[in-house]
Structure prediction request, 366 residues.
Amino acid sequence: MNNRIEKLARKSLSFISPYVPGKPVEQLFREKGLSKIIKLASNENPLGASPYAVKAIKNKAQTVNRYPEGDAFALKGKLSHLLGIDGRQIVIGSGSSEIISMTVQAFCEPGDEIVFAWPSFIIYKILAHAFGAKPVEVGLNADFTYNLDSYLEKISKKTKLVILCNPNNPTGSHVKKHELRRFIRNIPENVIALFDEAYFEYAEDPDFGSAFQWLGKGNVIIARTFSKIYGLAGLRIGYGIASKDIIRILEKIRPPFNTTILAQEAAIAALDDRNFVRKSIQHNKKEKKYLSENLKKLGFTVFQSQANFLFCQTEKNAAEICQKLEENGIIVRPMTGFGLKENFIRITVGKSSENRLLIKQLEKIC
Ligand SMILES: Cc1ncc(COP(=O)(O)O)c(C=O)c1O
Prediction:
């Protein structure tokens, strides 16, 4: 990097390394020249996209010479109907990561503290540094479940934002209804509470605690996405729900035309595709069980997950395991990027055939 240019950049950026996503399939094709690649590294939907969404994209393809409707009026209308809330309580983003980003930009001044768990979604830390806020990390329990008391203890006079990822990426751990009730009730009213519910549709525990019923508190924001259960990760569309006052603030900084015509139309159609959602949930439940049982047989410790991925620990060197899997065309996610020791791996639940191939390869490697 040219040092002269680096000096011009905001000082807080020196704490940031660029976000490293799961290795793209195209990159492994280039590197290894393999004919078939299985990607189990980015928690995408293995069943593809909702067929209703694909049809909507095709139908609208001819209209992309026009700008989209900036505030995604129709999609907001659909969500407001389905969720039973006012359309003015919804903001649409280019993925839920944009909702999280807008929240930090809108509410955090340099020096404000943002409290979040670690390990959790890496973006929180990047955003805190990017906007000059101070990241305050809360450790998880030894079994990677949340310790909400230590979360609350970390809230200080300087805290502006608390972020809870539920279910958590990368651990799959979750917060139950009664735990969430106590947590939310103890967050001061002058602190914004952001709940990242990117994976909530996959939660199997009937006692899973969504923050939805706490919207009335006024300081709660929920970020949700069409990237996971609806299979639209490549379109970049998600939404935030909150009080009208919060949404009014977020709308001030939402970039104009931040989502595309095709993404908006696909999302509207996907919301009607209940069959696809049902199938995706059933598939995830069945295949997660298969993977978990077989990974345990291979000596992995598999942590309880309410999402579409499994967080695993091995006695062996995870980086080597990941490397060997890549040589055989299978991409999983080593957890060193999350600052964890070398023996953790996150595996996305794939298609049935992909999961069986993974286990077959691991039987050879482990
Ligand atoms: C916890 C969590 N939140 C948000 C996102 C971002 O999703 P989106 O594609 O909606 O930006 C992800 C993506 O993997 C995630 O794991």
User: Anything to note?
Assistant: The mean pLDDT is 95. The chain is about 40% helix and 15% strand. The chain has two domains: 3-48+275-365, 51-273. Residues 43, 95-97, 121, 165, 169, 196, 198, 225, 227, 233, 238 surround pyridoxal-5'-phosphate (CB under 6 Å).
